[in-house]
């Protein structure tokens, strides 16, 4: 299985990078996982609705340029479906069984994801009704993907 995490912006925090690298290392036993960072648009504080849509559109174009037609796309959205770790594992296993060997998780920028990316999405996923920094979501996501593979293989992992 090939998993891409397509995300907007560069990760700056050293502690997050270290955590992500640890899980990426652990994931090599299960899948090829890559993180693709696309450039974020400058987003000043007081933007109009039209300016916000334009920022999301530009970031969305960059995101979509890294997603092939045969990829199953899961967008992280506050209004997406909430799953337990076991349910996410079951979804990943189901995709593998049905020949969907390429999965892309998409983490939008600070303004969210564009309408074009939402249209391309096969599934919207929410980790919580709370809002998390998109940089922190990378770490949470790679940990949950790792946990999912451990669950699929009935391997022990702390609960």
Describe, in plain words, how this protein is organized in 3D.
This protein is of the alpha/beta class and about 160 residues long. It has one domain (about 1-150): SPOUT methyltransferase, trefoil knot domain (Alpha/beta knot, 3-Layer(aba) Sandwich). It has helices spanning about 15-25, 50-65, 85-95, 115-120, 135-150; strands at about 1-10, 30-40, 70-80, 100-105, 125. The chain has a five-stranded parallel β-sheet with strand order 2-1-4-3-5. Helix 1 (about 15-25) packs parallel to helix 5 (about 135-150) and helix 3 packs across helix 5 (about 135-150). It starts with a strand and ends in a 7-residue tail after the last helix.
Q: Short description, anyone?
A:
This protein has 159 residues and is α/β, with parallel strands linked by helices.
| Main sheet summary | 5 strands, parallel
* CATH classification, class level: Alpha Beta
Order of the strands making up the biggest sheet: 2-1-4-3-5
Overall structural domain count: 1
Stretches where pLDDT is under 50 for at least 5 consecutive residues are: none
Determine the N-to-C terminus distance: 25 Å
How much strand?
15-25%
Helical stretch count? 5
Global geometry: globular
Mean pLDDT: 94
Task: Quickly give the CATH architecture.
Answer: 3-Layer(aba) Sandwich
CATH fold call: Alpha/beta knot
Catalytic activity: pseudouridine(1915) in 23S rRNA + S-adenosyl-L-methionine = N(3)-methylpseudouridine(1915) in 23S rRNA + S-adenosyl-L-homocysteine + H(+)
GO molecular function: rRNA (pseudouridine-N3-)-methyltransferase activity
Family: Belongs to the RNA methyltransferase RlmH family.
Keywords: Cytoplasm, Methyltransferase, rRNA processing, S-adenosyl-L-methionine, Transferase
